[in-house]
Fold this sequence. Notes:
The chain is α/β, with parallel strands linked by helices. Helix content is 45%, strand content 12%. The two termini are 26 Å apart. Pterin-6-yl-methyl-monophosphate is lined by residues 3, 5, 43-44, 76, 95, 97, 117, 119, 163, 165-166, 193, 195, 197-198, 236. It catalyses: (7,8-dihydropterin-6-yl)methyl diphosphate + 4-aminobenzoate = 7,8-dihydropteroate + diphosphate.
Amino acid sequence: MGIVNVTPDSFSDGGRGPEAALMHARQLLADGALILDIGGESTRPGAEAVDVDTELGRVLPVIRGLAGSPALISIDTMKPEVARAALDAGAHLVNDVSGLRDPQMLSMCAERGAPACIMHMQGEPRTMQLAPHYGDVMGEVFGFLAAQAGRALSAGVPGVLLDPGIGFGKTPDHNLALLRALPELSALPWPVLVGASRKKFLGALSGNPQGPADSRDAASLALHLHAARCGAALVRVHDVRSHVQGLRVQAALESA
Ligand code: PMM
């Protein structure tokens, strides 16, 4: 899954408006992305929410511009109104970082027959990194995901992906614990998505705490290869080309 952020404050691939985002999306497809994840609201720590019209003004031109391409399109939003309009414009999947906590998002996905990615987030983006706290991080995160999957499927959502939400209301230790426990999450009956691309904690882990976001691509690939080995079905990444190469080599080694 290639990341297409259409936001002025996107840390590495946005800020250039829908035209540039569309070109970026086409490049990610050429690089081998199967799904493009289009987002018009930043969910990075500390980010302020935007209104429906602003978000739609960013994502709809990109989704419409991709009509007729072979891309599967995912809309990265927490707002049912945005998700509905994106599905009308041709999106196939709803990626909700709030994990379908809004009942309207859940019922809209069911009505529209749209599959959903359910991500775990503690709190909300503006404040989630101030003081993340868990008694039992694996139990709480995996428990939430399994409960939401059950709720969504019984409401008629046709399919779900589960995502532990790396960096969303989590300390570096929480992220590592969840990543080490991925085989447990992958053992549940639903496909797993992992998105750690260019996230800040990778800077510290890789001995590069001050570098810019795009200096964390090798660290991202190492982490996502681990995720794939642990059973993740999808990884959400900025640098599609290097991930396709790395995942193909890993698959070739494993197929022996
Ligand atoms: N991370 C971001 C945004 N959307 N969606 C899912 N499902 N999983 C993630 O980990 C995730 C996401 C924030 O990262 P970005 O600013 O690089 O898009």
